[in-house]
Amino acid sequence: MLKGNKIRLRAYKREELKLVMEFINDEDVTKFLRPGVPFPFRYEDEIKFYESLNPMSTSSYSFAIELLETEKYIGGCGINEIDWKNSVATVGIFLGKPYWNKGYGTEALKILVDFIFNEMNINKVKLNVYSFNERAIKSYKKVGFVVEGRLRQEIFKEGKYYDEIIMGILRSEYKI
């Protein structure tokens, strides 16, 4: 569907839901995604997620990330919320741990942001990230996101409080 140099964003496939669940339930992945109690997702939860995907939606879009070379599923990204009146989209992304630190997440987010600005005519893309997720913050900055705000000690993880950082990029700032 949406293609880069190393990865493609495409629709999810039912047969990969067990792999999705394996990635999303990995303790090292989960700590960066959910602020609450890290209770594992069940297969039934993934089926409900899959069945709720609607290509005709006007409020959210979820994409599987796959490697171009092997067509292997490696993670997911999407537009979690769209404010059409104010032209703002909120995005999120995750990769399975074996695919970290290879540039795949940065490329996926660039493809997604480009789609949002150039196909959806949105003016601003934003996301939230925990302050302890330094790898993600570095990746987001490579795409052009800047820190817009900080919710101090918003997240309690592993016995400590951490900030939640709000980052954004405007269409006028985006460079292809």
Regions with pLDDT < 50 over 5+ consecutive residues? none
As laid out across the biggest beta sheet, the strand order is 1-2-3-4-5-6-8-7
CATH evolutionary superfamily: Gcn5-related N-acetyltransferase (GNAT)
CATH architecture title: 3-Layer(aba) Sandwich
Mean pLDDT: 91
- Measured as a percent range, the helix fraction is 25-40%
What's the β-strand tally?
8
Q: Which descriptor suits the 3D outline?
A: globular
CATH first level: Alpha Beta
Largest sheet: 8 strands, mixed
* Range of strand content: 35-45%
Domain count: 1
Number of helices: 5
Series of H and E elements: EEHHHEEEHEHEE
Q: N- to C-terminal separation?
A: 18 Å
CATH fold group: Aminopeptidase
C-alpha Rg (nearest Å):
16 Å
Pfam families: Acetyltransf_3
Protein name: N-acetyltransferase
Keywords: Transferase
GO molecular function, one term: acyltransferase activity, transferring groups other than amino-acyl groups
Key phrases:
about 180 residues; alpha+beta; Aminopeptidase; eight-stranded mixed beta sheet; 5 helices; 8 strands; about 25% helix; globular; transferase; Acyl_CoA_acyltransferase; acyltransferase activity, transferring groups other than amino-acyl groups
